[in-house]
């Protein structure tokens, strides 16, 4: 086992020695370390092995030195012999070199001169060659400068592109080319700034010129619309040539007619057709667009342009505060808007994608909403119907103009219906003043007609037909007053004024007819009715005037069918059409007539009250004067004269005769009832504490006069004693006290056949208590007379029975 280990150790030491001999000295460290890492004392054996190997090598070296020593000695001997010959040769070479140097010094100088010339020639050729490369670059740069100075920026950008891609790369290593290349981006930025500045100037310019552009466009649209109207009237007579109008060189369609270009007709036209280019220079836009396109920044330009135009649109759509005061304010507003969208339409078709149809539609929708809001607000301030009418015409031309450029305008025509309502409101206000003035100036008396010419003049203004009056000789009087033909004429004028608004609205005859009838109905039912109601309520309008108002409203009511025919003749729409609106004049004038009748009743009652206030009864008188009171006789005379006025009410046909009789009868009955009620209230007045039998007798004389007036038939048509029944309550009450028939009253109370059926126990009690107090105070010695004592007891007994009746009624 020990022998095997010794053998392995020897083999390992041999390998290590071979590795040391064949390995670089710097790498021996790991090998030596492995010796010490092996078995203990292995390094000693290795050192022994190493010493043996060193001795072995020393022997081999010694053998080799001994073998080559003689040859080395012989070589040294030969080398010493050669040294002497080498020294001799060196002297000869040195001498030869000296002589050669002296001989070639001149040749060297000439050769150097030739070399220098050749170098100069080569440099010159190189310079010429480089200059030939640089000259085009310099020429192009010079051309670029000239283009910039002449403001041909698009060409300058093309030149820059050639410089960068073709010329500068050939000589890019030269400093001046590097400076040029560094300057080109700066020049591009300058061009962008300059072109943007030109664009801003253009935007400012078109903002100033939009008014003129819009004015021209709207004028041409108006001329075209006028021409179409004329053509529509002559369409059946033959062929005609359509005019061309354009603001951007394109044809437009109006009402379905295409306006086609015809160079021959254009040359023969009286007036030159202006285009947008004639009024606005668009070159800055085109130039700026091309520049930004070349620079690859087109999107930035498009965004900037659209943003600025949106801002301008908002400025254009902002109206002046006082725009509603004059039509010129509206015209300037519309001109600016039309000019703005005409320019946008031109840009849309003249450029590729700078603005799109979607962008213009968005602008138009925004503008349309703002325009409608502005017109709604400002039109509401308009009080002049003429201004509203001119505004409507402007809106129509405005809509037609923009419709010709492809913008939808239906909402504008819808707005016109709102403006129409505003127009009608202003018309109604204006006609309200007209009606008031007519009513104020009217004398409320029948129209006197002296001659046939005057009669025809009145009949020409108002459809009056009366066979009986026509048969009368001149001079004669027409039943209505001057206000009737004036009102009728003004209603027709209102219809004409309302019709003006309906023109050019592209509406059918049926729709126009409906609008006219509705507006006329408003005039009749609201304006005229209100004026009539106010007139009737005025304090200075007396009974005579009220009677004339009833006559007037009757004739105006009859004239309503002529107004229906008048509207039908204007619109050519048959009144039998299903949806035709009817005029409400009948109800208007009936209401006014009823109001006048009611006012007659009210004024009669007020007049009766004024007379009643003049009554001055001596309630404690012993006996009556034997005649009726003066105030009552004056009142009855007033009533007689008043009811004679009702004979003037119209009765030219059975309906009017019955109507007039009914009004007179109602007024008479109302007056008698009010008089009876007032007299009864006078007796029962709580402030009246005492009433004597003499006062009762005097009061009875007054009531007798009232009954005589009622029985005299102040108004024909009453049956029997109908009018006298108004005083039946007073009559029965006074008879009860005059006859002193209390036994009959109390015995028959509550029976239908009672003689004093209309006497209320409470009324009798109140009056009896006033007389009881009087009986007590008239004679302080009445208690000592048997008759007076019996009468006083009777009164007290009746009072108790009446109180029991009153209490029984209340329970």
Describe this structure in words.
The chain is mainly alpha-helical and 811 residues long. The chain has four domains: 104 residues; 188 residues, no CATH class; 173 residues, Exocyst complex subunit Sec15 C-terminal domain, N-terminal subdomain (Tetracycline Repressor, domain 2, Orthogonal Bundle); 196 residues, Dsl1p vesicle tethering complex, Tip20p subunit, domain D (Methane Monooxygenase Hydroxylase, Chain G, domain 1), CATH 1.20.58. Helix content is 74%, strand content 1%. Strands 1-2 form a two-stranded antiparallel sheet. A two-stranded antiparallel sheet has the order 3-4. This is Exocyst complex component. Component of the exocyst complex involved in the docking of exocytic vesicles with fusion sites on the plasma membrane. Keywords: Exocytosis, Transport. Pfam families: EXOC6_Sec15_N (PF20651), Sec15_C (PF04091).
Which helices and strands, and how do they pair?
Blueprint: H1 2-22, H2 28-37, H3 42-149, H4 153-167, H5 175-234, E1 253-254, E2 257-258, H6 263-268, H7 276-279, H8 283-294, H9 298-316, H10 327-350, H11 357-379, H12 385-404, H13 410-441, E3 447-449, H14 452-461, H15 467-471, E4 476-478, H16 483-502, H17 509-537, H18 543-558, H19 560-571, H20 585-613, H21 630-645, H22 654-683, H23 693-711, H24 728-739, H25 742-748, H26 761-778, H27 786-810
Antiparallel strand pairs: 1-2, 3-4
């Amino acid at each position: 086992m020990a022998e095997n280990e010794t053998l392995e150790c020897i083999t390992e030491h041999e390998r290590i020695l071979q590795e040391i001999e064949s390995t670089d000295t710097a790498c021996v460290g790991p090998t030596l370390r492995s010796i010490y890492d092996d078995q203990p004392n292995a390094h000693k054996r290795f050192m022994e092995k190493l010493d043996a190997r060193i001795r072995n090598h020393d022997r081999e070296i010694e053998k080799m030195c001994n073998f080559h020593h003689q040859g080395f000695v012989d070589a040294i001997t030969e080398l010493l012999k050669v040294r002497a010959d080498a020294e001799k040769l060196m002297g000869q070479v040195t001498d030869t070199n000296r002589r050669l140097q002296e001989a070639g010094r001149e040749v060297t100088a000439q050769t150097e001169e030739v070399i220098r010339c050749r170098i100069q020639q080569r440099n010159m050729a190189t310079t010429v060659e480089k200059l030939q490369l640089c000259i085009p670059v310099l020429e192009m740069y010079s051309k670029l400068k000239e283009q910039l100075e002449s403001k041909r920026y698009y060409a300058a950008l093309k030149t820059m592109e050639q410089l960068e891609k073709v010329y500068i790369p050939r000589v890019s290593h030269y400093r001046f080319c590097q400076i040029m290349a560094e300057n080109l981006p700066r020049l591009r930025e300058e061009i962008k700034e300059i072109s943007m500045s030109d664009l801003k100037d253009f935007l400012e310019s078109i903002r100033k010129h939009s008014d003129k552009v819009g004015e021209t466009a709207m004028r041409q649209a108006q001329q075209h619309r006028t021409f179409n109207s004329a053509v529509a009237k002559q369409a059946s007579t033959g062929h005609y040539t359509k005019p061309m109008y354009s603001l951007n060189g394109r044809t437009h369609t109006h009402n379905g007619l295409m306006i086609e270009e015809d160079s021959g007709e254009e040359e023969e036209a009286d007036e030159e057709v202006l285009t947008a280019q004639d009024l606005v220079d668009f070159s800055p836009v085109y130039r700026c667009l091309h520049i930004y396109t070349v620079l690859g920044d087109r999107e930035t330009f498009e965004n900037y342009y659209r943003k600025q135009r949106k801002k301008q649109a908002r400025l254009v759509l902002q109206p002046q505060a006082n725009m509603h005061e004059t039509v010129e304010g509206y015209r300037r507003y519309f001109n600016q808007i039309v000019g703005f969208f005409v320019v946008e339409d031109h840009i849309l078709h003249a450029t590729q994608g700078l603005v799109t149809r979607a962008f213009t539609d968005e602008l138009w929708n925004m503008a349309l909403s703002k325009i409608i809001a502005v017109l709604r607000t400002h039109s509401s301030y308009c009080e002049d119907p003429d201004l509203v009418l001119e505004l409507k015409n402007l809106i129509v031309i405005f809509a037609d103009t923009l419709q010709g450029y492809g913008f939808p305008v239906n909402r504008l025509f819808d707005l016109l219906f709102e403006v129409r309502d505003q127009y009608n409101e202003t018309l109604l206000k204006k006609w309200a003043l007209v009606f008031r003035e007519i009513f104020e100036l009217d004398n409320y008396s029948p129209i006197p007609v002296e001659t046939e010419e005057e009669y025809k003049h009145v009949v020409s203004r108002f459809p009056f037909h009366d066979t009986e009056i026509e048969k009368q000789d001149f001079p004669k009087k027409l039943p209505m007053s001057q206000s009737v033909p004036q009102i009728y004429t003004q209603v027709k004028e209102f219809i004409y004024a309302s019709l003006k608004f309906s023109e050019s609205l592209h509406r059918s005859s049926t729709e126009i007819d409906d609008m006219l009838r509705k507006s006329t109905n408003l005039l009749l039912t609201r304006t005229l009715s209100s004026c009539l109601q106010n007139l009737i309520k005025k304090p200075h309008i007396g009974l005579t005037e009220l009677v004339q108002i009833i006559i007037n409203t009757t004739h105006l009511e009859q004239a309503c069918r002529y107004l229906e025919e008048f509207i039908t003749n204007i619109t050519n729409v048959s009144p039998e059409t299903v949806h035709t609106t009817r005029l409400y004049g009948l109800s208007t004038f009936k209401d006014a007539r009823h109001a006048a009748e009611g006012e007659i009743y009210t004024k009669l009652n007020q007049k009766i009250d004024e007379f009643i206030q003049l009554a001055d009864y001596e309630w404690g008188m012993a006996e009556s004067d034997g005649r009726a009171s003066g105030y009552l006789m004056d009142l009855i005379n007033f009533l007689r004269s008043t009811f004679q006025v009702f004979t003037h009410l119209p009765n030219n046909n059975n309906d009017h005769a019955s109507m007039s009789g009914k009004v007179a009868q109602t007024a008479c009955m109302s007056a008698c009832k009010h008089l009876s009620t007032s007299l009864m209230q006078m007796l029962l007045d709580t402030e009246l504490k005492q009433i004597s039998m003499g006062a009762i007798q005097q009061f009875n004389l007054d009531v007798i006069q009232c009954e005589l007036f009622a029985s005299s038939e102040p108004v024909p048509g009453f049956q029997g004693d109908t009018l006298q029944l108004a005083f039946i309550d007073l009559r029965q009450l006074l008879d009860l006290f005059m006859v002193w028939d209390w036994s009959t009253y109390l015995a028959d109370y509550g029976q239908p056949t009672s003689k004093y059926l209309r006497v209320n126990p409470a009324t009798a009690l109140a009056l009896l208590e006033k007389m009881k107090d009087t009986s007590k105070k008239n004679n302080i010695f009445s208690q000592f007379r048997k008759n007076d004592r019996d009468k006083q007891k009777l009164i007290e007994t009746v009072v108790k029975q009446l109180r029991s009746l009153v209490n029984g009624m209340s329970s």
